[in-house]
Amino acid sequence: MMFSRQQHPLNFMKGVAAALSLVPGVALHATPEPVAPKPNIVLLLADDLGYGDVGCYGATRVRTPNIDRLRAQGVRFTDAHAPAAVCQPTRYGILAGRYYWRTTAKANNYYFHANEILLPKVLKDGGYRTAAFGKWHIGWGSEGGASDAEWFNREDLNPGPNTAGFDYFFGMPNTHEHSPQVYIENNRVYKRDPADPLRTDVQKDPIWKYAGSTRRSAGAKAAHEACDLNTLDLEMGKRAAAWIADQTKEKTFFLYVPFFAPHVPLLPNGTFAGTSRAGVQGDFIQQMDRGVGMILTALKEHGFEEDTLVVFTSDNGGVYIQEAMDKGHRSMGELLGLKGDAWEGGHRVPFLARWPGRIPAGADCDELLSLTDLYATFAAAAGVVLPQNAAPDSVNQLPLFEHPLDTPAIRTEMVYMGRGAGLRAGDWVYYPAQGPQGLFGTFYMTQLGFKNSDYEGNDLRQDAQPAQLYNVKEDISQAVNRYTRYPRIAAQMKARLSEILRQKRSR
Known about the structure:
Blueprint: H1 12-20, E1 40-46, H2 65-73, E2 75-77, E3 80-81, H3 87-96, H4 119-125, E4 129-135, H5 161-164, E5 168-172, E6 184-185, E7 188-189, E8 198-202, E9 215-219, H6 221-225, H7 232-245, E10 253-258, H8 279-301, E11 308-314, H9 322-326, E12 351-354, E13 363-365, E14 369-370, H10 373-381, H11 398-402, E15 413-417, E16 421-425, E17 428-431, H12 445-448, E18 455-456, E19 459-460, E20 468-471, H13 487-502
Parallel strand pairs: 1-10, 1-11, 2-13, 3-14, 4-5, 4-10
Antiparallel strand pairs: 2-12, 5-6, 6-7, 8-9, 11-12, 15-16, 16-17, 17-20, 18-19
Helix pairs in contact: 1-13, 7-8
């Protein structure tokens, strides 16, 4: 992989010591003066899109012209990371500006605490109209919530996206894999019929085509008929574009579109089925790219393109699908690991930002960025001063957006989460345990030609080192574990990781 920026000459102990000495893990920048006029802000979030799933990150068997347009017109980050290698903690981190492992939120229930100051609420208080279209998947209600389809028979489903600060929401409560498979509009089921309630049937359905996806919702005929699982991202693109058309220049807006693809089940409609060279996974990605295109076209047609900051990224790494692998597609490109892993492939994600006149076109940036940083960065672009207790793990990366070629690193460390934790500090990554610390194992390594010094093929060696240390600037594929070669670096990073995990905030 080629990087456009020159790195400082490697000095192992000095470089790591300098990174670890920055206790908050960031070089803080003051919030810039408000921009006149303030920009509209659009956040497009894919679901399980890997680092190698997009054309501008090296994909050759999948076509993503609309996503690639953002790269041509803006900046491409090559070292951007989700704060977790699975979706719900990342979505929490984006909207709360906080590592998920700091919260006591319960899965399925509404994830946020009553006193948390969330991104859409901050922007709304700063004069923005706010809307979200797509996959919510951060819990509903204070009891039962997303785990109980019958809960959705209630007329008022709050707390949910409206509670979080969105003026308008249209989408699904979870991923399309889970019950209920219906749309929600604001705080109630779309096309809800009290005489025909939702229910949960546990049965096998051949459309899922992979183990574990046996649950689906039933009843609620009108609601189910209105939610075509084969056109989800097209529907989100269409509705988001229509919402953009209704906006005016007099009031800025924040639009959040969490797409469904390419999370399984892979369900492209007939227009896109068979159109990629990576099988159904590639087809589903290309369908999502069309949804991205609908939104970008709407911004241009309605005169908002020049005044809008657009960010496209993914909630975590991709999932290896056998058909796509057989056709030569590598969802994570050169990165070792996949969704769920603390290894790089679990959380290093594509990240593109466009803001005409403020972000240079066609630029690359290889400095570290966390998706939790979107909160402080968007607030800075909007000229909004963060409340004192808001976004404790978010830092303003706007200077890096605007000057990607000559701005020093703003973030110097972050915690990566699979099922286990890892610490990134400078060029180094430390894991206190063996292996990927993930969900799916290492079944793909031999087939895709990955090598790791602790592994023999797909299997952990008996003499594998007890922990892991990699220099990801020199060894992006994490092929050589340097834990025993640099014990002092490993010891420093072990201590620092323990310290961070005890803290309540990064800054």
